[in-house]
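Sequence in, structure out. Go.
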Amino acid sequence: MSISARLRSVIDDRGLSIKEASEVVGIPYRTLQNYLLGEREPNAKAMAAIRTHLGISLDWLLTGDGSMFRGVSAGAAETQTVNQQEEAILELFRSLGDAGRQSIQSAAEEKKRLMDIERRLQDLTEALADTKRPA
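Output:
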């Protein structure tokens, strides 16, 4: 993942538009847009502003290593993102009528059943391969 993709991820995670992010960070709209398009990379001053105003780790922005957020372990940041995603899905689910909720539940149960079958098939394939190996 590139710096531009990681920066886009931060802006999306914060629920900001490019215009809103440029205002929060104090970087001109067009400059931020160039960063997001990969046409330019942020200079040291821009990275410091991004770090300060969006609360992200520069190590993560530059390399993708570690946690996206400053002062948060990678596991905690992942849990926070998953929880936000789960909350959004739950909110959408609750906004549907009974038929819509039943349809989604049936699809999820079918997906789970197929994943279980795929896992079992993989286990059986590995077991069969083990029995065909010469001793």
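Check: The domain at 3-75 is CATH 1.10.260.40 (434 Repressor (Amino-terminal Domain)). The chain has two domains: 3-75, 97-135.
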